Amino acid sequence: MCWAVYMSMFGSLGLAKLPYMKWLLPVMMIFLTIHLFFLYKRIRVAGYLPFIISMLGAVFIMSTRAFFPGTQWSLVAGVGMILTGSLLNNFPNVSLKLIHKKHKIA
Questions:
Q1: Which parts pass through the membrane (predicted)?
Q2: Which of 18, 57, 74, 75 is the most core-located residue (most Cβ within 10 A)?
């Protein structure tokens, strides 16, 4: 499971106002770093695209939290990028199979 996505999603849904928020952001950053590390390890299998998209999502989330704390659309965009990167990492050959389908002519 991708805990960084869950933590990001909870933060963007309003759970950031709970009293334990002081430790929630560091925990989210730790899980996000672990997520990016595992994506980096799978670059040979899945390619660079899942890692780059998830990295951009992480940058969106962290820059929003640091510089634009009231902006929700960039948090949602960051969570969407991380989710997209995770899905691309789990299904790396789906698009390739659809594109490179060979047809036999009888």
A1: 20-40, 47-67, 73-91
A2: 57
Q: Say which amino acid occupies 53.
A: I
90: left (phi over 0), alpha (psi -120 to 50) or beta: alpha
Report whether pLDDT(97) > 70. Answer: no
Q: What is the pLDDT of residues 43-69, one digit of tens each?
A: 888 788 888 999 999 998 888 888 887
Q: At what angle do helices 49-67 and 3-12 cross, to 10 degrees?
A: 30
Angle at CA of residue 53, ends 50 and 58, nearest 5°: 120
Q: Is 18 exposed, middle or buried (0-12, 13-18, 19+ CB in 10 A)?
A: exposed
Could you give the CA distance from residue 73 to residue 78 in angstroms, rounded to a whole number?
9
Quote the tokens at residue 15.
């759970």
Higher-scoring residue by pLDDT: 29, 24:
29
